Give the backbone structure.
Amino acid sequence: MKPMTLYAATSNAGKLRDFATATAAHGIEIATLPNLAQIPAPPEDEPTFEGNARTKAIYYSEQAPGLLVLADDSGLEVDALEGAPGVRSARYADDELYPQTPGSTTDERNNACLLHALTDVPDACRAARYRCVLAVARDGMVTHTAEGTVEGHILTAPRGTGGFGYDPLFFIPERNQTMAEISLEAKHELSHRGRAFRALLAQLS
């Protein structure tokens, strides 16, 4: 039987790697949506992760008739910041008008912005979680959604060189490691994206 293929509506290398790791043992292939770079991105202005994931899945599936299109929206929620950066996680530093250090990446700037926002917040009050919502659509209709979360807290300085986004600051107490210090296999087991994918795969299979 030909493996099921999900066409991911993302060019983010970290997300694609996580998706491929999550699906490897389930007979499902992950491919980037054809001609993704030529498709104008839809606005991501919904107030929830699920709203944005569904909007993206519907939009991109309409650009690729007949294909199963996978979209996600994910990010970091920090309790001391009333859930920020939340759905604006990828654009947090821009929203906060945080200055750009020459040579720094978007991830590094977002992390620096987060540390600045938490300057006076003690360690005991730095609880946070990663949240991910996945949506699958075909021809403009959502067929499946799934959600995953992982709890942790925010360090005062980055640790680790793996992962992406806020991973170097996101500490998992039971592992005594940040998300940027664990292996890809362990990340699949522990991460919000891995948990969401397992929930989605249970539906697809």
Notes: The two ends are 13 Å apart (CA to CA).
